[in-house]
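Narrative summary of target 7.
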Amino acid sequence: MTTRRAFIKLAAAVVAVPTLARSVLFGSPDPLSESKWLTFYNTHTGEALSETYCCSGQLLPSALQKINHILRDHRTGDVREIDVRLLDLLERLAREIRCNRPFHIISGYRSKQTNDYLRRTSGGVAAASLHMTGQAVDIRVPGCSLSDLRQAALALKAGGVGYYPKPDFVHVDVGRVRCW
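Modeled conformation, tokenized:
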């Protein structure tokens, strides 16, 4: 028969284990208590945005809508929900490069129409690009060399990293870990 005291101890252990696991895995007492924010500059529209999108582990819908808008397909105006894992990857990348400058967005979400157009007119555009699902972004950061940005993205081992020195951007996505 379980006593009340034994039950309370068991319940406390059940609550403590996930918190302890997060602490060990992520190196902070509770990463869900952190605020997460990003700063963007869209190179095609001239729009800028600095937004906290997560506070105390809660996603902020109005902030996510603003981020979705700035990362929209600038050719068609289409907006799509950006995968929060991509935002978290960018937030981690910003901390990794220790830079408080905005991510310059070369390409965020792409409609099928835009992706097809880019496939016809330029090289290296995937038919099933993760840009079309809001899971990829092409970026640069003023004051951070492209090679340092690439190295930092690779170090995170959180998805795909493409290096494009001539057009001056790094591609990051939340697909499988790979590089090119």
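The chain has two domains: 1-28, 34-179.
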